[in-house]
Design a protein that fits this description.
Elements lengths: L1 H11 L9 H12 L15 E3 L2 H12 L3 E6 L4 E6 L1 H4 L9 E10 L3 E3 L2 E13 L8 H6 L1 H6 L4 E10 L2 E3 L3
Antiparallel strand pairs: 1-3, 2-3, 4-6, 5-6, 6-7, 7-8
């Protein structure tokens, strides 16, 4: 009788990777975010980049101070032209500054059929990993408040996850 109870206890703790559990949601989210970095520019600007917009000038000048760009001022036409440095070329044109690492699930909706899959909406908290040194400089943090907030510690986000035969995934 004791061995039957031990077998039941051992199998009761086993979960399938397709079960709607916080642990499985974290695995699916972290797999997705490991290939999807956070970037300063969602749509990549082309370099050389020219602007006279004060907000863009502040952001680009911060990247100059971080030694990712150089700037040439064109006073006759009131524009600044930015070019990537050798160091900046490794991050350009989107200037990605790390990826999310989910540390916990705050809530999830009951799984329901949608788009041919079982889906759930999750709210999670995360920290950023692999943040480069340039993204921690005071000038860059001041010029990009969303990045400053994201790199300041634990942040939260929302995502849709779809249940598949191999586990929970963020649909593309």
């Amino acid at each position: 009788m004791g061995s039957v109870f031990a077998l039941l206890l051992a199998t009761a703790g086993c979960h399938s990777k397709t079960d709607p559990t916080p642990e499985n949601f974290i695995v699916g989210l972290n797999a997705y975010f490991s290939d999807h970095s956070e970037c300063l520019f969602p749509s990549a600007p082309r370099f050389p980049f020219e602007t006279s917009d004060p907000a863009e000038l502040k952001q680009m000048d911060a990247l100059v101070k971080a030694q990712l760009l150089t700037v040439a001022k064109e006073p006759a036409i009131h524009v600044s032209r930015y070019i990537t440095t050798t160091t900046g070329a490794r991050s350009a044109p989107r200037f990605c500054y790390g990826h999310r690492f989910v540390t916990g699930i705050d809530s999830s909706t009951p799984p329901a059929k949608a788009n041919g899959f079982t889906e759930t909406q999750v709210t999670y908290h995360y920290e950023l990993r692999d943040v480069p040194i340039w993204a921690k400089t005071p000038e860059v943090l001041a010029a990009f408040p969303a990045m400053e907030q994201a790199t300041s510690g634990t942040s939260s986000g929302k995502a849709t996850l779809a249940g598949t035969m191999v586990g929970w995934q963020v649909p593309d």
